[in-house]
Amino acid sequence: MRSNLRRHASGKIQQVRNATENGGESLAASLNHHVDEHSALLHRTFQNSNGQPLYDDERTWVRWPASFGYTSWQTLTSNPVNVLLVFVPLGIAFGAAHGNPTVVFILNFLAIIPLASLLSFATEELSVKLGQTLGGLMNATFGNAVELIVSVVALKNGEIRIVQASMLGSILSNILLVLGCCFLAGGIKHKEQSFNSTVASTMSSLMAVSTASLIIPATLYAAMGSSKSHDKKTDNILILSHGTSIILLILYALYLFFQLKTHAHLFDEESEPEAGGESGANDEQSEGHVLKPWAAGVALVIVTLAVAVCAEFLVDSIGSIVESAHISRTFIGLILLPIVGNAAEHVTAVVVATKNKMDLAIGVAIGSSMQIALLVTPFLVILGWIIGQPMSLQFELFETVVFFLAVLVTNYLISDGKSNYLEGAMLIGMYIIIALAFYVYPDKNPESA
User: Fold this and answer.
1) Is pLDDT of 30 > 60?
2) What is the C-alpha to C-alpha distance for residues 192 and 418, in angstroms, rounded to an integer?
3) Crossing angle of helices 160-172 and 377-387, rounded to 10°
4) Which of 29, 99, 176, 181 has the fewest C-beta atoms under 10 angstroms from its C-beta?
5) What SS3 class is residue 164?
6) Rama region for 417: left / alpha / beta (φ>0; ψ in -120 to 50; rest)
7) Structure confidence at residue 139 (pLDDT)
């Protein structure tokens, strides 16, 4: 009797389990059917009656609008940060109407973030089509285009302190904040990560050279002391800065030749592990076929012009922000403006770090800093020489010491070719300390700035 009850109960339990499993399968099938149906509906909106995509339609009057709509949608949805594009027309409108400087600064500050993302996206799209050599040159040219545009506008307006602080802030933001976030995010997901120490060592060595190019003018100015007049010392510093900038540009050109031609095998080794085991790199390359070369070129021009307009209004409103919010020009240029220019790079580097692609993350973080130090900053010094602005490599002594310590700590942490979350926390902590220091650091000569 007891055994019959036991058999009956076990039979009922099995029936309930089967019903639950069948119910779960039917529910999953129903959900999958709904998703497939929805996807098919979305796909049919870009197809004609013959099932052919509208952007491949034989009729020109159908193909061109459909192609424009499809590529525009793919471009706008390439990064979630693009939702901030609504601030672009608002920032331009308020700036053109000479609105409240604080509102103009905030609106254009938010507007440049998605524009930087679109600029990065268009550059990557064009680089895929141009191959490794030309693609590397494109990334070198447009990788830091936002910082370059903002700095050119500030240099034209005579805001030398803003330009210098923006350059230094971009470097510190990349080697401390971005790299720290990469190490932290990747270290939380993976116990320990490794990367190509040879490539990292080459980049860090060039960063050390760029550090020396800032230390020498600062120490020379201090060494001259009161033995010479202020104008004479300034002329000597400008001569040194112009010559040093030319040498740095030559070194960067040699580095590109080293990376893309003579020692390309060192940098090509980065993609070998992914090619063998993971399809992530291939997937990323296949994703880089949204825009045709001419479309990517047009997008670069349009976005660059939009960045230039927003940067103009942004820089013009800095003076009022300094007076009303009591924030130094140095803090704005060193902390706030780099957040705008490096927003897209921050997201990209952290995402690839969580995917255990640390070589790519190192390339984004340190490579971008190296471009600022060896390409953008010397270019701005030469540009200031041409247009008659006294832009030099003589930074304030405190800023130079901070830069030296940041590069020193970064070189120590990447020298072993391995990273973990603790090293990431160290870099982020050091960046926060530097940000606090510059928040209370006053402008030495606010009137002349």
Assistant:
1) no
2) 7
3) 170
4) 29
5) helix
6) left
7) 58
What confidence score (pLDDT) does residue 122 get?
A: 78
Asked whether the beta carbons of 289 and 128 are under 8 A apart, the reply is yes
pLDDT of the residue at 427: 93
Buried b (16+ CB within 10 A) or exposed e, 48-76: eeeeeebbebeeeeeeeebbeebbeeebe
Tokens matching residue 254: 């040699």
> Which amino acid is residue 393, in one-letter code?
L
- What is the mean predicted confidence (pLDDT) over 186-214? 85
Any idea which residue has 């003076």 for tokens?
319
Taken in order 340, 342, 347, 350, the sign of the CA dihedral is: negative
Q: Distance between alpha carbon 135 and the CA centroid of its chain, in Å?
A: 17
Residue 436 and residue 211 in contact, taking contact as beta carbons nearer than 8 Å: no
Q: Of the candidates 125, 139, 102, which has an alpha carbon nearest to the alpha carbon of residue 323?
A: 102
| Structure tokens, 78 | 């390439």
Judge whether residue 213 has pLDDT over 50. yes
Residue type, 311: A
pLDDT tens for each residue of 297-338: 788 888 888 888 888 888 888 878 777 777 887 888 888 888
d(CA 207, CA 218): 17
